[in-house]
Write a structure and sequence with these properties.
It holds the Pfam family SRP_SPB. This protein is of the alpha/beta class. It contains 21 helices and eight strands. It is 56% helix and 10% strand. Helix 2 packs antiparallel against helix 3 and helix 10 packs parallel to helix 11. The C terminus is likely disordered. The structure holds guanosine-5'-diphosphate (GDP).
């Protein structure tokens, strides 16, 4: 995410490395590099200029002149300004109204329908709500089908009227349906066009006026940079939306949209969406995003994701098994599955400071563990629970079942054995109590 911008900022800060003091000259050079980095990330010129003017004036402040490490100080100033540019603090998302009505708007292909599915899943699983998805796209029957498929995947009801060509009427009928069926959040996925167009705008504005939504979310593809910002402006002029959703952050996004939207429309980014998995919706935190852009990782989000998967009882059981040197293949695969539930692997690794950058060209797919999983899945429950029972002939069978070479099974067995030896050694150390942390 934003790799090029991260690299460019890092090299801008390098100008200051080894400098004992901040001077007019080295600030000027650094600031120039930062501005170029922002422009290359597709940040609007005016925003980039204002940003760097602020950084410059902060850096030349009296206190700063005496600073010990100008490089670190500059990073801190830029971090604060990036956070501010993206909205400062986390924006709230209204869900208290009963029912809460959420209108989703944006161009076709921006990711509206996928986001609607993700949001319904998020509200259902994380907020304990009873959502209803509403298909208000009267032009593309395929869009209605898509929403039904998503609804089924996340276990959320979908309301649609295939023959009705009046989007306002559909939205109103959906409200009545929601009341009847005790749904407390209504998510209305509207029709999009390939470009901003008057008929589409009028239609969404009419829905807005008819049902008075609690939240109007404008969904935008972050890959489209400055175009995203212009589209946001057009939608905001007509809809006065309450928040922005940035999608496709998993792609090779330069960062322009994330950095410019708040400034341009003065509406907060509320959610970011990366990937097509329906359980990967993230609340947007400007400070954490700024940290990630600066290559500092995002430990807070990583810990939160781990905590969501943390099951205290299971963790205690696992700790006991590790202490008794009974860690087996079933435990191993359970742990793998927990990690995978935290989200997209590359995204998770990117939250570790420095790792995102180091791994930017490495292709880690979510299939990275597939081979190991196949091997474990080819074992019998008895073998999984008793790793030492796996004789050479059993290894043959496991290799065959998993579609692997015997040498691959042998290599995995060896690694697993080394891991167990390591656990054994740690158990003997006085710090063994810390192993409890492994359970997450
Ligand atoms: P809509 O026309 O606005 O409803 O957009 P869709 O939800 O149909 O999404 C358009 C395309 O983008 C589909 O192929 C989605 O699978 C894909 N898509 C949506 N959100 C994301 C995302 O966050 N990351 C990636 N990589 N693809 C996405």
């Amino acid at each position: 995410m934003f790799n090029n911008l991260s690299d460019r900022l890092e090299s801008a800060f390098k100008n200051l490395k080894g400098e004992a003091r901040i001077s007019e000259l080295n600030i000027a050079n650094t600031v120039k590099d930062i501005r170029r980095a922002l422009l290359d990330a597709d940040v609007n010129y005016k925003i980039a200029k204002e940003f760097t003017d602020k950084v410059k004036s902060k850096a030349t402040g009296e206190k700063v002149i005496n600073a010990i490490s100008p490089g670190q100080l500059m990073v801190k100033i830029v971090q604060d300004e990036l956070t501010e540019l993206m909205g400062g603090t986390e924006a709230s998302f209204e869900t208290n109204a009963n029912p809460t009505i959420v209108l989703i708007a944006g161009l076709q292909g921006s990711g509206k329908t996928t986001f609607s599915g993700k949001l319904s899943n998020y509200l259902k699983t994380k907020k304990g709500k009873r959502p209803l998805l509403v298909a208000a796209d009267i032009y593309r029957p395929a869009a209605i089908d898509q929403l039904h498929v998503l609804g089924e995947q996340v276990g959320v009801d979908v309301y649609s009227e295939r023959e009705n060509k009046d989007a306002v009427a559909i939205a109103k009928n959906a409200l009545a349906y929601a009341k009847e069926h005790a749904k407390n959040v209504i998510i209305i996925d509207t029709a999009g066009r390939l470009a901003v167009d008057e008929v589409m705008m009028t239609e969404v504005a009419n829905i807005k006026n008819a049902i008075n939504p609690n939240e109007i979310l404008f969904v935008v593809d972050s890959m489209t940079g400055q175009d995203a910002v212009n589209t946001a402006k057009a939608f905001n002029d007509r809809l006065d939306f309450s928040g922005v959703v940035l999608t496709k952050l998993d792609g090779d996004t330069r960062g322009g949209a994330a950095l410019s939207i708040k400034y341009t429309v003065n509406k907060p980014i509320k959610f970011v969406s990366s990937g097509e998995k329906l359980d990967t919706l993230d609340v947007f935190y400007p400070d954490r995003m700024a940290q990630r852009i600066l290559g500092m990782g995002d430990i807070t989000s990583l810990v939160e994701k781990a905590q969501e998967q943390y099951d205290e009882e299971k963790a205690k059981k696992l700790e006991k098994k590790i202490r008794k040197n009974q860690f087996d293949f079933q435990d191993f695969i359970d742990q793998l599955q927990q990690i995978k539930r935290m989200g997209n692997l590359k995204d998770i690794m990117g939250m570790l400071p420095g790792v995102g950058k180091a791994m930017k060209d490495v292709d880690i797919s979510d299939d990275a563990f597939k081979g190991v999983e196949a091997m474990i899945n080819s074992m019998t429950p008895f073998e999984r629970a008793n790793p030492d029972s796996i004789t050479p002939s059993r290894r043959q069978r496991i290799a065959k079942g998993a579609g692997k070479e015997l040498s691959e099974v042998n290599a995995f067995m060896k690694q697993f054995d080394q891991m167990r030896q390591m656990m054994k050694m740690m158990n003997k150390m006085p710090m063994a109590g810390m192993m409890g942390g492994l359970g997450g």
